[in-house]
Amino acid sequence: MKPMQKGMLIGVAIAVVPVFLMGATNYEIQKTNKFELHPVEDGYSRPAAFVLNTETGEVYYQVEEKRFTTTMKK
């Protein structure tokens, strides 16, 4: 086998073998979270955030009123 043919054969093998191996791999679809939390600054010193339900699309506004208590408004 000539050196050029041998080099081309190795080059094609280097390109084809990884593509074949990646195509044979089974990937599981990862489950997305039901809720997403998006912090916002509401102009006050208290923390606030938008809570998004990714299944239904509902959005809640969560405000920390006092220590350890929160309220959620739709």
Separate helix tally: 1
The structural domain count equals: 1
Task: State the strand order across the main sheet.
Answer: 1-2-3-4
Class from secondary-structure proportions: alpha+beta
How many E-type strands? 4
Low-confidence stretches: none
State the distance separating the first and last CA atoms.
74 Å
Q: Note the overall shape.
A: rod-shaped
The helix/strand order is HEEEE
| Rounded average pLDDT | 78
As a percent range, the share of strand residues is: 25-35%
Radius of gyration in whole Å, from Cα?
A: 27 Å
Describe this structure in words.
- This protein has 74 residues and is an alpha+beta fold.
- It has one domain.
- Helices cover 28% and strands 34% of the residues.
- It is built from one helix and four strands, in the order H-E-E-E-E.
- The chain has one helix at 3-23; strands at 35-40, 48-53, 59-66, 69-73.
- A four-stranded antiparallel beta sheet has the order 1-2-3-4, with no helix packed on it.
- It starts with a helix and ends with a strand.
- The mean pLDDT is 78.
Question: What labels describe this entry?
Answer:
74 residues; alpha+beta; four-stranded antiparallel beta sheet; 34% strand
What's the SSE blueprint?
Layout: H1 3-23, E1 35-40, E2 48-53, E3 59-66, E4 69-73
Antiparallel strand pairs: 1-2, 2-3, 3-4
Describe this structure in a few short sentences.
This protein is an alpha+beta fold. It has one domain (3-73). 28% of the residues lie in helices and 34% in strands.
